[in-house]
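Look over both lines before class:
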Amino acid sequence: MKRIIFLSAAVLISGIALAGGIVTNTNQSAMFTRLQARDATLGIDAVYFNPAGLSFLPNNGLYISLNNQTLGQTRTISSDYANLNQSEFIGNVSAPFFPGLYVAYKMNKISLSAGFNPIGGGGGGTYDDGLPSFEYSVADLVPALASQGATAYRSDVYFEGSSTYFGYQANISYKINDMFSVALGGRLVTARDAYNGYLRDVELNMGGTWMAASDVFTGIADQFRPGLTGTTAIVDGGGGGLTFTQAEAGMVIDAATRAQLEGGLLALGVPQSTIDGLTITQAQAYYQGAVNQYDATAVILQDQEADMEKTAMGFTPIISVNIHPSDALNIAIKYEHSTTLEFENNTTSDFITGLNDDGTQITMFPDGEKSRYDIPAQLTLGATYRPIDQLMLSGSVHYYFDEQADWAGREETLDGNAIELGIGVEYALSDKLALSAGYLFTKSGATEAYQTDLSYSLPSSSIGGGFAYAITPKLEINLGGSYTIYQNGEKNFDHDVAGSGLLVPVMETYDKDVWIVAIGVNINLNAGK
């Protein structure tokens, strides 16, 4: 018996899963929220979306944009595993503050800019009733101990995770001529994932009486301790090489002791035909394994809690090209290189998930353990077109090179890269007021093998709308809102009930939805000059 595992863990959380790829967020301004396609913008949020486009800001001088989005998400995970007490698990994810701060300074053909935003993650998820993966092994205790009177289980499980990747970006843009401009930039990414939770009060109904599960397993271990003590005494006395028959014939043990020791092995499921050929040393190993297993399970089922964070830092090179063939048409291309992120665990307390044969603990978040989860490279294409001065049409394509990223092997479960397609329309009712709306479709290459109950990726459709209002020529307010609907996903797998080898088909289904409310303030200190 190599190890004992009673808790399974999905230890990856991808934040609030906003517009963008599996890892990357692209909803980085209030203007994006109300339009859903900003990749060819010539506004101040081009610091993120189209750095080369900053060369076409209308005036020399300083531009500032302050944005915040408030976001909420509900995740619903269902499982049809019959032994679970509940079939539906709900996680609530929130991000009341999701800032986007941008500054640009234009000097004729050169523009310098900087930005700050949550480039990945951006929220925290709370699962008040845990998750299916946390409960399968606890639910398995009932069928595993049914012969000893177990009829039901109950437990108190809580899990909370958060994920935030902050991006600090700087660019330099150069206007080659009235049609072409280019930009070089980079983004420093600081990433932090944090997990905390507990498993408490795991109890089993044993013949109508609720008992702590740890006490139940300690009691089972106690049933086999006399057999371990008895066989150990014989081995220590030099009789370990004898069979039970030989030991009784040589008066090392009497008939009653032999019956007791063989009876314990039968209770462990060892056939009599096998027992007849065992040496006392081999019988001792059976008893030792059983006592170790049940004692270890008792330890695992005691009250536990986990508190861990893992951090990483990386850098993203960025290149951008803007093509402006006419006042009516603008085209933008941007490439962001992949960002290498190697996380290291800083664990204060941890879940014990199993024990090795030598008694060392297997934990969910080993302190100091390192893992890779990169931000993949992405290519974006955008265009805007104004058939008349009041009307702007916008389109965008985002392509994420997920399969080339290092996600500790999880990228091998993809069957393609993620892609987004966005369209938007804006109409100016007056010099001060403009209304807009947009649509964004997102699809990743996640397969069933990729999905887990805590981290899954689903095709989605987002709709957004809002308005911009110029309070003065130097001050503009943007308000927007969006709602994202995800297609349901599922995962089918065989669950090994209590490690018995009995495989039961299980289907998990995944769903979620996201809402966003955004506000932005754009300041142009040079307007009217």
